[in-house]
Write a structure and sequence with these properties.
With 210 residues, the chain is mainly α. It is 74% helix and 0% strand. It has eight helices and no strands. Helix 2 runs antiparallel to helix 3 (57-76), helix 5 (98-120) runs parallel beside helix 8 (172-202) and helix 6 (127-156) packs across helix 8 (172-202). The longest helix has 31 residues, at 172-202.
């Protein structure tokens, strides 16, 4: 019998506790399911890939963090997350910024995950093309998510308001995509070198440098 990956066991336990707390009494049960769906999809994929592709510690930590961001947003709905109201008051903002933060993370975390897949799979040799591809993929993910929100709005009508979290902003879709792109760019700028070191220790990818 193959030895279980201790990191995935820890992630599974942590996410299970987070899902239980998040789903105990959410603001809206349908919204909760839609918000935490990526977590429910991601973990089985990580388990299925554990022997063929074990992610670096950096990528796994970021994936775990992203999961908790989604769970918190699902519990309250993004427009009602308490910590968002605290930041709103502190910075004198017109709206709860947790939704913006969630879309920033929507770019930040996938940028590292995609970067690792492309490097370790030896799909791209040019560092500039790698960066452009990662940013383009993240923006495409954001656009796909906005289309999913559009579909939810058409299907559910006013029932999708909590899922959309627009807070009356007619440019919410554009802001969401911009925040995702900014998050992806920040991840590439801030984490590429430590990420490269971890990939090098994994021993199955060629590190590309500018």
């Amino acid at each position: 019998m193959a030895k279980p990956d201790r990191r995935l066991v820890i992630l599974g336990v942590a996410w299970s506790i987070g899902l239980a707390a998040s789903g105990w009494s959410p603001f809206d049960r349908a919204t909760w399911w839609m918000e935490v769906a990526p977590v429910l999809i991601a973990f089985p994929i990580l388990v299925a890939l554990r022997h063929r592709f074990a992610f670096t510690p950096l990528a796994l930590v970021l994936i775990a963090f992203h999961g908790f961001v989604l769970m918190l947003g699902g519990a309250y709905s993004y427009a009602r997350v308490p910590v968002g109201f605290m930041v709103q008051d502190w910075l004198h903002l017109a709206r709860n910024p947790y939704d913006r933060f969630g879309h920033l993370i929507q770019g930040f975390v996938p940028a590292i995950v995609l970067r690792e897949l492309l490097i370790r799979g030896r799909h791209i040799a040019s560092p500039r093309v790698l960066t452009i591809t990662v940013l383009a993929y993240c923006l495409a993910i954001s656009a796909l998510y906005e289309l999913i929100e559009f579909g939810a709005a058409v299907s559910l009508g006013e029932g999708a308001d909590a899922f959309l979290g627009t807070q009356g902003d007619p440019w919410d879709t554009q802001w969401d995509m911009l925040m995702c792109l900014v998050g992806a760019a920040l991840a590439v700028m801030l984490l590429s070198r430590p990420h490269d070191r971890q990939i090098a220790r994994a021993g199955d990818g060629q590190i590309v440098r500018p």
